[in-house]
Amino acid sequence: HLRTGATTVMQMGVESDYVARMCEEVGLRAFIGESYRSGEWFTPDGKNVEYRWFEDDGRAAFEGGLDFALRHRNPSGDALVTGFLNPSQVDTCSADLLRRTRDAADEHDLLMQTHAAQSYSEFHEMTRRHARTPIEWLDDIGFLSERTLIGHGLFLTGTSWTNFHGDDLGLLARSGTTVVYNPWVFARNGIIMESYDSYQKHGVKVCLGTDTTTQSMLLSMRWASIVTKVFEHRADVGEARDVFNAATVRAADVLRRPDLGRIEVGAKADLVFWKTDTLTMVPSRDPIRTIVYYAEHSDIDRVMVGGRFSYENNAVRGLDEASDRRALQEASERVWEGWPSHDWASRTMDEHVPLSYPEFETRR
């Protein structure tokens, strides 16, 4: 993240205490949520998605997530780490678990995030269970609010993805819920938001995320802008200024941190310093357009968080990046080797995801 110019991230998953320690060591501001859910999905045949429900409805994991969030409330904003509540997905969380989350968030003034309207299977599963869209159901149980973030919020009524009657955008707008759009990771699978400008015209708050590899806000801004223009068949939508705001001031406001995402008196000294003499940064008449449409990660010179440089001289503070890269490759190879034990059909990784040039397999 620091190498790609991010000064604040929102991270969800497991091992939150470890993630928090690492963020503090390298100097990365982070909102972290320990994930929990009522059950998990699986496929028995590669066609159907089924669910395996936990006996305790995810309550023990919820208590762990709440404990982490309360230990990192950070009301002053001076700490690097702030906790939030993270029920994983709308289709893997019961109404009771989500209501517990909402009540705890209200009581302790915490943000909460879940995944909803993120896939065909989830959308149709929720309409099958409840005769309600994922967004309608979340509204019914009182989960949508100003403190709620929804990733990814793409499969909504009124879009070609669902061709379903309703007013999901209106529900999101009236409740003050924020949609976190991750354009690159979905666009590479042929899925886009319909559309970024349309959501905003309906009054829906939208900010940008990165999701999985590569965790680059430069790519997120660029793809958010370009796919919006392509979808709308217009050049005057998805403007550089707007996607830049979605990655900075708008995201900071959603996190209820008016001291982040901007350069002004009273704001935290979280700054990205750019090289202005590279081939991708020159010529530059409008630096915002230059950054959104042309800049590369190599154009980032230094990154400051809280008045201290976390990235400079092509290195992240406190990391042995060569060692970390080797460890990442080795860990990935262990996952690939063990892939058959996780796949419903016991396929190898090469069978499941063939190489771009399979003949290379015989030579590596």
Category from helices, strands and their pairing: alpha/beta
| Integer-rounded radius of gyration | 21 Å
Tally of structural domains: 2
Tell me the number of helical segments per DSSP (H or I, 4 or more residues long). 14
Largest sheet: 4 strands, parallel
State the distance separating the first and last CA atoms: 31 Å
Which runs of at least 5 residues are low in confidence (pLDDT < 50)?
none
Proportion of strand residues = 15-25%
Instruction: Tell me, rounded to a whole number, the average pLDDT.
Output: 96
Shape: globular
Pfam family, one: Amidohydro_1
Domain Amidohydrolase-related: 2-308
Keywords: Hydrolase
Protein name: Amidohydrolase family protein
Give the helices and strands, then pairings.
Blueprint (H helix, E strand, L loop, with lengths): L7 E6 L2 H11 L2 E8 L2 E4 L7 E4 L5 H13 L9 E3 L2 E2 L7 H14 L3 E5 L3 H11 L3 H7 L7 E5 L15 H8 L2 E4 L1 H5 L8 H6 L3 E4 L8 H16 L7 H8 L1 H6 L16 E4 L12 H7 L6 E6 L2 E5 L2 E2 L4 H17 L11 H4 L12
Parallel strand pairs: 1-2, 2-5, 2-6, 7-8, 8-9, 9-10
Antiparallel strand pairs: 3-4, 11-12, 12-13, 13-14
Helix pairs in contact: 2-3, 9-10, 10-12
Describe this structure in words.
By secondary structure, the chain is an alpha/beta fold. It folds into two domains: 2-270, TIM Barrel (Alpha-Beta Barrel), CATH 3.20.20; 321-362, no CATH class. Helix content is 37%, strand content 17%. The protein is built from 14 helices and 14 strands. Strands 1, 2, 5 and 6 form a four-stranded parallel sheet that branches. A four-stranded parallel sheet has the order 7-8-9-10. Helix 9 packs across helix 10 (240-247) and helix 10 packs across helix 12 (287-293). The longest helix has 17 residues, at 321-337. The protein is globular. The two termini are 31 Å apart.
